[in-house]
Amino acid sequence: MEDVYKLINQARELGRFWSDIRLPEVIFMGPVNSGKSTLINGLLQSEICPVDASPCTFIPIRLTAGSAFYAEAHLRGKTRRIMDKRQLADLVRRKAPGKVTGSIEIRHTADILNWCSLVDAPGSGLSTETDRLLDKLVAGSPAEIIFLLHQRGMDSSIHSYLNGIRKLIQSGNINISFWINANTGLSDGSTLRETVASLRQLLPGRSGVQLISTKDHKSIELLSLYIKTSMAGRMLKQIEKQLRSMDGSLPVRLGKITGIKDDGEFLRQFWDLHQDARQLLLAREAISSLPGAGGRIHWLLNDNARRLVLLDVPSGAALKQRGKHSGQPLKMEQLIKEMAGDSILNKIIPAPGLKDLAEKINNRKCVIEVVGTFSSGKTTFLNALLGESILPTGDKATTSSTVVIAYGSEKKAVVRSLLQPVFNPVRKKDGKYVPDAREMKALQSLINDKEFFSVVADVEIAVEKSFHRIPKDELAAALEDTLSQLSREKKAGSAGKIASLLPGFISKKAPSRENPPLMAVRLTLSNPLRFVFDLDNPGQRERYVKITSPPYSFIIENVEVFHPSMPLRKAYLVDTPGWDSPDNPRDVKKPVFSHRADIRLHFLHGKHLASDVRDPPESSLPEVYYVINFADTLNQLEREKASLFIRIKLPAQSGKQPLPYPRVYMISALEALRGGDEGFSRLVRQLARGVEDRHLRMLRETGEQLGSMLGEALERCSSGRTGSGDSRNAAKIKKYLEELKSLSKTSNMPGGNKLWKTPGC
């Protein structure tokens, strides 16, 4: 990192010489509670910006360099001196997220402020007013925007906001970088890939995303270096024109100096010339080192991201810990982790390459998604696979949210809410306003739930397109007014039909439309809700069923269930709401097929196959298994008709050719749950083979990559290109190659199905 620090020191010295340069501005933006203020405090190495579990930054806080702490607030056209940090926190927290005016200016002694001013901006999506204020900040063409995301990555509201400011960013040629704050625990790395993919479409050429943690000192130090290096490059570009002018004037000045006869004047001007020449050489050296320093920072950030994803990578002492098990073949992931922690081997093979391979193995489980109509037995099948009735089932629709089922030592469920759930109680259809009974009922139920409504911090309503704030206690009345208005219009419409049959001189003109009704309601919670349920406890299981059913399912962002079932060691199971479910929180006209699924189980009810059959899109890559449930109620002829329906009629609905060899399984999920069903057992065995095949294929590919890396390293050792200790290094590499060879043999051995032992098979 010497090249980075050298560039920073050179730029610092040049900055003193070119003292008239205006410092650039860096704005910290991102969704509410993503950790922007905490990150700035880390950069300042001082608790300056107020931090709270609920949103507390409603106006911009601008920080600049100063000899001591000084702060003043500019609110409603008045300037107010802030005496200390406690008063600052009180003032910021008292500022309501309503009409946003003014700002807070702070001077501080932190070193980072000698490079740029920092702006702690309100969170995006907090309110319409704050979003407009953020637009103004972006329109001011800052030097850089540090956009901090939650650990979960991008959601639809962030995507929508970025889409709204995309033109401002592109037209202003603003540098924007995206950072995921992994401050809630270990990251699995998936949000990095998904966020990059989203940004690649949204902001082409600006899709770089880094993983940091506001709880990690090294992350903050690297971000500080990134900002200083970026600002150094910006400063050098600013003075480049002046440097060229100075370079051209040096020979002329030298010629004039040689003609000076006064010794004192000669020495003075010659010294000035010497200083200018020195600054010129320093600037040239700094400019030439910029690409290398920038590349080094990028590499360090990538390495830091891998560290945050793989914090459990063993140290170099791992070799000593093998002990008596050293003769046994290690698992592939253990072998790679051991190699990544081998400090000697890392001098030959870069650790990041090994960590990439370890990440590939650790984070890539097979994803099995279950889709279909409601009450087709999807959840009952999953219960049979887990070996017990742990997920709610019934004759009516019971799955209102997508549920991800993963391996865990304890049986528990984790439910997380949205920060800003949006409801559409009225929709416009064919030019008419139509109430959505489900959305209206859910919203009214949540308003009447005093415990839930107490955590609602902000209420916004939209009559047409834009949202505006209203007091919480006025929302119920606004909904009642909307219902009354729609009811009057419906009666007026009926009267209009009758009047149209009467002569013109008798009929009366229908009353004109009132103001447009309430179209959308956005609730902002003081903090996203998180519920954890012990599924071994009957009472908590009942609470889990309640919280994942309407009206609460309308505010849920994700549901995770953990279970110590053996199949979950190598696969995630995903349960989805029925396509035609009356309790679906949104009117979904098309099924949302996950692009991450490896295997999709397409469930159909044996007694009514054609009720609502939907075929995955062409771009969907997973293998599709067609599962006909309630097969125990079908005779042989009905079974044959069901198979024929899947092979010919189902693809015909999408204008496709018949499926030549569809995978069709006849099962009874209920019988499987009770103790045994041959069709279920066949399906589970096929799933086990599919999961195992994918795992083995991934292991083989990883083993080939690892073998290639070790082979190249061994060749370098044999040719003497790695320096001293070649023979010792070669022996260590050969040892790893032998272990890899033994792993390659065992990875091809059968027996993977043993992991999938369930009561039914």
From TrEMBL:
GO molecular function, one term: GTPase activity
Name of one Pfam family that matches: Dynamin_N
Location (main, coarse): membrane
Listed GO CC annotations: membrane
Subcellular location: Membrane
UniProt keyword annotations, A-Z: GTP-binding, Hydrolase, Membrane, Nucleotide-binding
SUPFAM superfamilies linked: P-loop containing nucleoside triphosphate hydrolases (SSF52540)
Occurrences of domain Dynamin N-terminal (ranges): 26-150, 368-611
Designated name of the protein: Dynamin N-terminal domain-containing protein
